[in-house]
Each structure stands twice: as C-alpha cells, then as structure tokens.
Amino acid sequence: MACSSTDSQQGGFATPAAMLISLALAVGAVAVVSTSETELRSARADFERAEVASALAGGQEEAAVSIFSSAGGGALRWNEEAAGHKLEVLAEPEAMKTSVAAVISMEDRALTPLMLVDADQMRARLRVLSIAQAVGAPLEAADASPIWRVCARSLISPFGLTETLQPLPQASLLSDASSGHVGEIWRVWVRDSSGWTDDRVVRLTGDNLHPAATLEREFSKRDRVDSRCNSYFSNVR
C-alpha cells in the first residue's frame, strides 16, 4: 500500500496520519452530498413556488375579467381552475367597506363585535398607516384581537366610502354586460388547495388583455379566509 509504513511492525496497515486523511475526505464527501441534497430540495421548492405563483397570477387575471362582467353588489366567492390548479377566489369591492377615518372616529360601542384588545391603541395605529399599509398586513396588525385580525381587511379600507361598520353583503357571480366596473378598486384573494395565496388590491381596467392594475400584492401561505365575520355582527343593532 502506498500509505503503509516501511516499518515491519506497521507493514500492511494504514498509519494514523493516513487514517485521518481518509476520515477528512469522508467527512468532506458527506458534507458535499448533504449540501447538494439541500440545494436540490431548495431548487425544487423554488420551482414549485414559481409554478404556484404563475397559476395564481393566472387566476387573478381570470378573476378580474369575471368581476368586471359581473353584476357586483357585494363580496363574491367562487372556485375556478388555472394551469391545472383548483383555486378558491374571494373578491371584495373596496368602496363598499368602512373608511379608515370612520373607524378612527367611532365610539367603542360600535366596535364591540370586533372584541378589540385596546381600541385606543388601534385608533393610534390606524392614524399613521399609509394607504398601501391600510389595505395590507399592517391593518390586520392594528389590534391583537383574533376577530380583528381575521375580519379587518374585509370590513375596512382606505378606499371605503361607508361610515358604518358592517360586513359586505354577499353577491352572486352573475353576468351583467351593462354593469361595468372600470376604475373600481377591489381586493381579490386567490388561494390554491395547498394554502398558497395571492392577495391583491387592484383597479379594474376593463381591458381583457390587462384586466387589472395591481396596487398592492401579498404572496404567502395562509389559511382560508374566515367566512364567519357576518356572524359576529348578527346580534348587533
């Protein structure tokens, strides 16, 4: 053996130095394999995420076309398919929601259904939100109440025109060629069966090639949008 000692007492056996070299090579090989496996898993995850993102983006475009040709009149919820993915869609007209300014000026009694942890702190946080923040996650984070976090974005918007805090009426996705929603701002939430969600606030253009202009977008893995917000207000008069 090339690594054997010429000493007759060690003849035919690896020296300690050779054993250490072999061990170092083995550890290095394991590290290379482990790194390669990690990179392969990461590459696969990135590919799957890109594939889902593409499908959800296609779902967003189909949703915008569907909304534009619908009768509107409230929140819309339906299922569709894009790029082989089954998608759940929720669309909410922002103008029908309560304005942020109205929520800030409301008495605590009007906010009771949301079971706020700290109403004054919530108002203070809303006052400093930009328009972009007030249609996204920062609005949800304005209070620690679970009901607020689930329902705030479906009830409140900087583009809202109403003064009373109440759930949007539910509408059907019925075709109405005369309705026209050009220029309207909607929140469109598209989710696939694995939980990946493309949540956008868009302005409808009426152009079939580019049906919506995105004002705000959040791509993440989230639970299904809670549909119980209406029940929290059912006993409020």
Question: How is this structure best described in words?
Answer:
A hairpin with a 3-residue loop joins β5 (185-192) and β6 (196-204). The strands form 2 sheets. This protein has a 5-stranded antiparallel sheet with strand order 1-2-5-6-7, covered by helices on one side. The protein has a two-stranded parallel ribbon with strand order 3-4. With 237 residues, it is an alpha+beta fold. It has one domain (47-232). The longest helix has 53 residues, at 16-68. The protein has helices spanning 16-68, 100-105, 119-127, 137-140, 146-155, 229-232, and strands at 76-82, 85-93, 98-99, 156-157, 185-192, 196-204, 212-221. It is built from 6 helices and 7 strands. The chain is extended, with a radius of gyration of 28 Å.
Query: What summary fits the major beta sheet?
Result: 5 strands, antiparallel
Q: Which sequence of strands runs across the widest sheet?
A: 1-2-5-6-7
Low-pLDDT runs: none
Helix content: 25-40%
- N-end to C-end Cα span: 93 Å
* Total of domains: 1
What is the percentage of strand-forming residues?
Answer: 15-25%
Count of alpha/pi helices: 6
Overall pLDDT, averaged?
Answer: 84
The helix-and-strand class reads alpha+beta
Rg on CA atoms, Å:
28 Å
Could you give the count of β-strands? 7
Order of helices and strands: HEEEHHHHEEEEH
The general outline is extended
